[in-house]
Amino acid sequence: MHQLQYACPTTLNECLLLMKEAGAEAMPYAGGTDVMIHLRERASCVQNIRLLVDLAKLEPLHGIRLENGMIHLGAMTTHAEAAASVLLHEHAPFLAAAAATVGSQQIRNTGTIGGNVCNGSPAADTASPLTALYAEAVVASASGTRNVPVPKLYGRNGVELAPGELVTEFVFPSFAGWKTSFIKLGRRKALAISRMNVAAALELQDDGTISSARIAPGCVFRSPDRVHEAEELLIGKAPSRALFAEAGQLSSEEMIRRTGVRWSTAYKQPVLEALVERALLQAAGLPLEE
Question: What's the CATH fold of domain 59-173?
Answer without folding.
Answer: 3.30.465
